[in-house]
Predict the structure.
Amino acid sequence: QVQLVESGGGLVQPGGSLRLSCAASGFTFSGFSIGWVRQAPGKGLEWVSDIQSTGSTYYADSVKGRFTISRDTTKNTIYLQMNDLKPEDTAIYYCNALEYWGQGTQVTVSS
């Protein structure tokens, strides 16, 4: 059974940092692209970042230079380091690989 489990969300002030984790079980993601998608209140899904099986990384313009995606293949886990957070980063962040989705983790950026 494939599962993606996110963690690490929370409330942070503007300019702060958070690190999200996504632990995969039931498959080895090293052969696939895996990444993050977010949904802000009242808005649709927005692609944030992904990491390819080659290790290449890609980012939405809105987060480029502030977010960093990485993976630990020994733990079958990916991470999203988020720095210089802005109120517009407030959203539920989902981990996604192929047709599989995690349950999401809430990130709220507010003073």
User: Anything to note?
Assistant: The chain has a mean pLDDT of 95. The radius of gyration is 13 Å.
